[in-house]
Amino acid sequence: DVQLQASGGGLVQAGGSLRLSCAASGSIVSISTIGWFRQAPGKEREFVGRIRWSTSSTYFEDAVKGRFTISRDIAKNTLSLQMNSLKPEDTAVYYCHAQGSYGFRPYDQWGQGTLVTVSS
Questions:
Q1: In sequence order, what are the residues at sequence separation of 6 or more whose Cβ sits closer than 8 angstroms to the Cβ of residue 6?
Q2: pLDDT tens digit string along 64-118?
Q3: Residues whose CB falls within 8 Å of the CB of residue 111, separated by 6 or more in sequence, listed in order
Q4: Tell me: the pLDDT tens digits for 39-67?
Q5: Taking 90 as the threshold, does the pLDDT of residue 9 lie above it?
Q6: Do the Cβ atoms of 69 and 82 come closer than 8 Å?
Q7: Which distant-in-sequence residues (6+ apart) come within 8 Å of 115 by Cβ?
């Protein structure tokens, strides 16, 4: 199994920056992609961005392109989400998410959420 532990949320003013981290443990070799989703109050959970664990190629949702970056540290098995130029609409609970497979059995693994609040 893969376990994910997110951290780094908090309160920041609009235009500011925040960095989220996700520590992965367990069967790291099984991870294909790892990234972030977010859920704003009263809204459905939505995709933010992800990185392919083996190649570090990234993909982002349009609303965060150019403002958010994702990186991973293979030695430390950690994922980071650097968020710049934050807007009030970025306020949400952010969830770390991994996709992979155990043999031929695919999985989706979620970490606990971390709250990001952007004040105007």
A1: 20, 21, 22, 94, 95, 96, 111, 112, 113, 114
A2: 999 999 999 999 999 999 999 999 999 999 999 999 998 889 999 999 999 999 9
A3: 3, 4, 5, 6, 22, 95, 96, 97
A4: 999 999 999 999 999 999 999 999 999 99
A5: yes
A6: yes
A7: 9, 10, 92, 93, 94
Phi and psi at residue 61, to the nearest 5°: -70, 145
The set of residues, in sequence order, having a beta carbon less than 8 Å from that of 40 and lying 6+ positions away, is: 89, 91, 92
